[in-house]
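Hi W., the 3-isopropylmalic acid complex you wanted:
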Amino acid sequence: SETKKIAVIAGDGIGPEVVAEAIKVMKKTEELFGYKFEFEHGLFGGIAIDEKGTPLPQETLDICQKADAVLLGAVGGPKWDNNSKELRPETGLLGIRKALGLFSNIRPAVVFDCLKDASTLKPEVLEGTDLIVVRELTGGIYFGEKFRREGAQGEEAVDTCVYNVTEIERIVRQAFEVAQKRSKRLASVDKANVLETSRLWRETVNRIAPEYSDVEVEHVLVDNCAMQLLRRPSSFDVIVTENMFGDILSDEAAMLTGSIGMLSSASLGEGSFGLYEPVHGSAPDIAGQGIANPIATILSVALMFRLTFGYEDAATAIETAVKNVLDAGHRTGDIAVDKSKAIGTGAMGDLIVAAL
Amino acid sequence: SETKKIAVIAGDGIGPEVVAEAIKVMKKTEELFGYKFEFEHGLFGGIAIDEKGTPLPQETLDICQKADAVLLGAVGGPKWDNNSKELRPETGLLGIRKALGLFSNIRPAVVFDCLKDASTLKPEVLEGTDLIVVRELTGGIYFGEKFRREGAQGEEAVDTCVYNVTEIERIVRQAFEVAQKRSKRLASVDKANVLETSRLWRETVNRIAPEYSDVEVEHVLVDNCAMQLLRRPSSFDVIVTENMFGDILSDEAAMLTGSIGMLSSASLGEGSFGLYEPVHGSAPDIAGQGIANPIATILSVALMFRLTFGYEDAATAIETAVKNVLDAGHRTGDIAVDKSKAIGTGAMGDLIVAAL
Ligand SMILES: CC(C)[C@H](C(=O)O)[C@@H](O)C(=O)O
Ligand SMILES: CC(C)[C@H](C(=O)O)[C@@H](O)C(=O)O
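Structure:
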C-alpha cells in the first residue's frame, strides 16, 4: 500500500523514550500488514527552545504539514517554566494546533482492567466507565485577543473568548458522529446561564440536533458536569465542549479512571489528518531512566491507524497485543503492584511487538 | 446587644422550607444568648420574576442594602429555565452579587461523619479532607462585556474576561488571611500558561506572598487542580481562584466530599457584611413536601454569626447542636440510610433548636 508519512515529534522528558517504542510497533506492523511508513523527526517544545530558540521551528511545522499524521511524545518541563511567553513549550503546542487546524481533541477516558484499583473512586462507581471528551481545540479564550492595559483600578489584564457558529458547528457535528458510533448519547457542556458564547453553543447544538435524531442530547452546565463526572461517571458516553471547559473536564475525566498513564488522544482537523499523543505529560522526574510506560503512546498509534489511515486491522492488533501483554502480568513501574518486578520502557515495547 | 438586621430571601423550590428552620434556630439564639434579630423578607429569583417581573426587584435590593447580613435559601427551577436572560433567576444572582459588592465566595468542603460513605471516593482517599475554596465572585468572564456580532464565518459570540490588580489583590489577601487561620497552605489556581488574566493573577499572588510569609503558596494550573482534587483531596487546605474556575472547582470539591447537601457558603464584601446560603440548589423535585434537609441552611447561619456578627458562641452552639442531632441518629431522607426512619424538614429544625 501507499507509503504514509508520519511526522515524529518526540519532545521533552520521557517523550523520546516512549516514542521510540511506538516506532518499533509501527515498524512491526509494516512487516505484518504490508503497510509502509516514512518517519520524519522534528524538534518541538523545550528542546526546540534550547536548540532553535523557538518552541515551534518552521522546519518542524513544514514536516508536519507534509505528513499524513503526527505522533507527539510530550512537551515541557521545569527548565522552561519561567520563560517568557514566546519561549515556552505551551506556546508551541497552541501554535501547532492552530497552524495545523486541529480543531478537535478526542480524549477517551476508559478504565483499564489492570488499573481499576488505581482510581480514587469506588470500584462500583467506576464500573462501566468508558467515555470520550470531544474538546474544541482552536477557539475560545485560548486564542482570543489578550492584552494588558492601565485601568482606573490599576493594571488590567484581558482575555477574550470568541466563538463563531462555523467553529461550533464543525466540532459539534464531529461529536454527534462519534456518538452515533457509540451509545448514541451526547452531553453538550456549556455555561449558557452566564456566557454569550455558551448560549450560541447551545443554540447551535439544538439547531443541528434534529439531523442526528438517533442521538440523545443532554445539555449540562459545566459546574454540574464537574460534579456529575464524579457522581455517575459511567452514565456519560460522549461529552462535547469548548476549549477551556474541555481542558478541565477531560483531565478530571482521565484522572477518575485511574488510568491516566495509559490514555491516548487524537487532535483532528478537516479530513483525515491528525496529531496523536499520550494524555500524560513529559514526567521530567523519570526522564532518561528507561522506566516510563510507553503504552499510552503505543495506543496513540492504534488511534492514528484507525482514525487517520483506516488501518483497522493493525489498530485492533495493537490494542489486542497491549491487552495480552498486560493480561500476562507484565507491568512498567507506574502500573506495577510489585515494583520489584517492574520492567522498563524498552522491554514493554519489545513485549508488545512480540505479541503483535 | 444591638439589633442585627437580617434580610431573608427564601427564593424558590425548597428555599422557603429550609429558611424557615434557619429562622427558628436564630430565634432560639436570641433567647439563649440575648442577641436580637430583625428579619425583613424579600422576593428574589423565580418567585420575583412571577410576582414582580424581575428576578431582583429594587425593594429586595434595598432590604439587603439596609441589612447587616443576608440569608438566601435557593433560587431557580425548570419553570424559568427557558426565559430570556433578563427574566432568569441566575441574572438576579449575578445582579445581587455585583450590587452588594460580594467579591468573595467562601465554600468549605468538609466531610460529615454520617455521610462519609456517601462520597464516590474511597474512604481512605477522602480521609481528612477539609478544604475551603475562596472564589472571586464579581469579576472575570462573568461580568465582562458580552455580545454577538456578524463575522466572516457567520454569527459570533464574545465574552470578555477582565481582571485588574485591585480585584485580584483583595480576594487573594482574603484567601491568605483564611489560610493563616487554618493550616497555612494556599493553592492559587490559574491557567497562567495560556491566559493573560491568569498571568496577572499569578504575579499578584507572588507580589503579596512575602507579606504572608507564614503561608506556603503553591501555584496549580486549573486542569491539574481538577485532577489533584480527585487524587489527593486531603492535601488541599485553602484554594483561591478566579470566578469561572472557582465555579467549577468548588462544585467538584463539594461533590467529592459526598456531603453536598450539608455544605454552607458565605459571600463577602468589604467589611463584615455577607450573604449566606446553602451550597445545594432549589431541588424543585422535592419542593413543598416538607422533606428537604435544612442543615446546610442552618449551618449557613452559624457561618453568618461567626463571620459577620462575631457571635462565636452562638456559631459554635449551632454547629454542636447539629452534630449532636446527627450523632443521635436523626436523619432527613437525603442522608438517611433507612429511608423509612427519615424525619421531615420541620422535625429536623425542631431537634436542632432543642439541642441548642
Ligand atoms: C499545556 C497546555 C497549554 C495544554 C492546554 O491547556 O490545552 C494542556 O493542558 C492540554 O490539555 O493539552
Ligand atoms: C447559577 C449560576 C449563575 C451560579 C454561578 O455560576 O455563579 C451558580 O452556579 C453558583 O455557583 O452560585
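The radius of gyration of chain B is 20 Å.

W.
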